[in-house]
Amino acid sequence: MTRIAIKAGVALLALVLALLLAIPYLIAPTWTCDRFLRCWGRRAHDIHHDGLRVQVRVAPRFFWLFNVLFPTSRALTMGRTVLTRDAEVAWRVRTLRHEMRHAFQFRAAPRKYVPRYTWHYPRTGWRRHPMEVEARAAEDWPIDSERVPQT
């Protein structure tokens, strides 16, 4: 097989994964996608912040397919679930702050989160994506469950 055929096959698998996420999201309650993501990987820990509890899971097999669409992605947030590529990422404070901001964005507009994200991504790219710009700005915010070293 040629490289183009292999890339096309992997892109097709990525499209199927996107549809698996999108169909329940559009026709079922918003917690359906949250439950779907919680089937992947193993639970690493929970984060509690401002009345929101988010479960962080390590799911390297999910990212094998997800990386076709987003090759530099280290984590994915949907609802109250964060999937990370590996255990090191699951404990990286800046990444957790970033993903917590996405959880708050989802909580603010659960039905609009995925359509808004996918609308902006091809038009602005990751660097100028409004939701990503907001999440990167949140990387310096404190998280309640974060341990602050004593000086």
Order of helices and strands: HHEEHEEHHHH
Number of helices: 7
Overall number of domains: 1
Helical content class: 55-70%
Are there runs of 5+ residues with pLDDT below 50, and where? 145-151
Neighbour order of strands in the largest sheet: 1-2-4-3
| Structural shape | globular
Termini, distance in Å? 59 Å
Mean pLDDT: 79
Class by alpha and beta content: alpha+beta
**Biggest pleated-sheet summary:** 4 strands, mixed
How many E-type strands?
A: 4
Q: From the alpha carbons, calculate the radius of gyration and give it in angstroms.
A: 16 Å
| β-sheet strand percentage | 15-25%
General description of the model:
- With 151 residues, the chain is of the alpha+beta class.
- The chain is built from 7 helices and 4 strands.
- The chain has helices spanning 3-27, 31-37, 60-66, 87-90, 93-108, 110-128, 130-137; strands at 42-49, 52-58, 75-78, 81-84.
- It has a 4-stranded mixed beta sheet, with helices on both faces.
- Helix 5 crosses helix 7 (130-137) and helix 6 (110-128) packs across helix 7 (130-137).
- Mean pLDDT is 79; it is low at 145-151.
